[in-house]
Write a structure and sequence with these properties.
alpha+beta, 9-stranded mixed β-sheet, 20% helix
Length: 240
C-alpha cells in the first residue's frame, strides 16, 4: 500500500498562483503550484519560519491537478477565461516627513527617492472562475495533520493572495490512492456542473505540453529556496 492522497478543492471567483513574478508585475500560472499548495497547508497548520524538514518530506511526493470550468449546453468544459489584470498603487499617500510612513515609500537601490515621489503601479494577474482539484500525496502522518488543519486552520486560508478567499471547503477527504481521489473529484465536479478543461501530472509524460516549474519549496521564510520539477499538461476540453 502506497502513501495516501489528500484531495483539496480550490474554487473562487479569483485565484492567483505566482510563478515568475517581479515587484512591478505579479503573474499567475494557469493552475496551482506545488509551492502554493504547500504554503496553503502551512497557513492551515500555523507553520511559520523556514520549515525545511517539513518541506523535505513533501518534496518528492506526487501532486496532480485537474482544472474545471463550467459546463456548456453539451456538457463539455467551457473555454477558460483570460487572466484578469488589475493594478495597485504602491507607496502613495505616505508622509515622507513621518519616519514610520517613510519606511513604506519605495526607494531606489541607493536609498534615495524615486522619480515621481515613490509611487509605483504594480500589475497583478488572476485566474478567473476556475475550480481545481489538487491530489497531494504524503506520508500518512503528514496527510492526517494537514487534513485536520484544513478543517480547523490556525491562519486564514486564501488561494494565492489574501484577496482570493475560497468559496468551497478546501478539504475534500483523504484517499488510499490517486484513483480514488480522482473519482471523488469527478463526482464533486459533476455535482457543481463543471467539466475538466485540463489536467497536470508530475513528470515528463506523453502529453500535450511538458514544462519545467521552479516550484518545489525547500525553505520558506525570509530566505526562500526552490528546486525544479517537470510537469505534463493534458488538454481534456471536449471530452465528456
Amino acid at each position: 500500500m502506497g502513501d495516501p492522497y489528500l484531495l483539496l478543492w480550490l474554487e473562487a471567483p479569483l485565484q492567483s498562483w505566482g510563478h515568475d513574478s517581479r515587484f512591478g508585475r505579479r503573474d499567475s500560472l494557469d493552475f496551482p503550484t506545488k509551492s502554493g499548495v504547500l504554503g496553503l497547508l502551512a497557513c492551515a497548520l500555523g507553520a511559520g519560519g523556514a520549515q525545511t524538514e517539513w518541506l523535505a518530506r513533501w518534496a518528492d511526493k506526487d501532486l496532480q491537478v485537474r482544472a474545471y470550468t463550467p459546463r456548456d449546453s453539451r456538457g463539455t468544459a467551457r473555454p477558460r477565461l483570460p487572466l484578469l489584470c488589475d493594478f495597485h498603487m504602491v507607496g502613495s499617500g505616505y508622509d515622507d516627513q513621518n519616519p514610520w510612513q517613510n519606511l513604506l515609500i519605495p526607494k531606489k537601490s541607493d536609498g534615495g527617492k524615486a522619480v515621481g515621489g515613490g509611487t509605483k503601479i504594480t500589475y497583478r494577474y488572476y485566474v478567473q472562475d476556475m475550480a481545481f482539484a489538487v491530489l497531494l500525496q504524503g506520508t500518512a502522518a503528514d496527510i492526517a495533520d494537514a487534513a485536520q488543519a484544513l478543517q480547523d486552520p490556525v491562519w486564514d486560508l486564501y488561494l494565492g493572495r489574501k484577496s482570493c478567499p475560497p468559496t468551497e471547503f478546501i478539504h475534500q477527504g483523504v484517499f488510499p490512492d490517486a484513483e480514488a481521489a480522482r473519482n471523488a473529484a469527478e463526482a464533486l465536479a459533476l455535482d457543481k456542473q463543471r467539466a475538466c478543461s485540463f489536467r497536470v501530472e508530475q513528470g515528463e509524460l506523453e502529453g500535450d505540453t511538458v514544462i519545467r516549474l521552479n516550484d518545489v519549496p525547500l525553505q520558506f521564510g525570509h530566505q526562500k529556496r526552490y528546486r525544479d520539477r517537470m510537469v505534463t499538461i493534458f488538454d481534456q476540453r471536449g471530452e465528456v
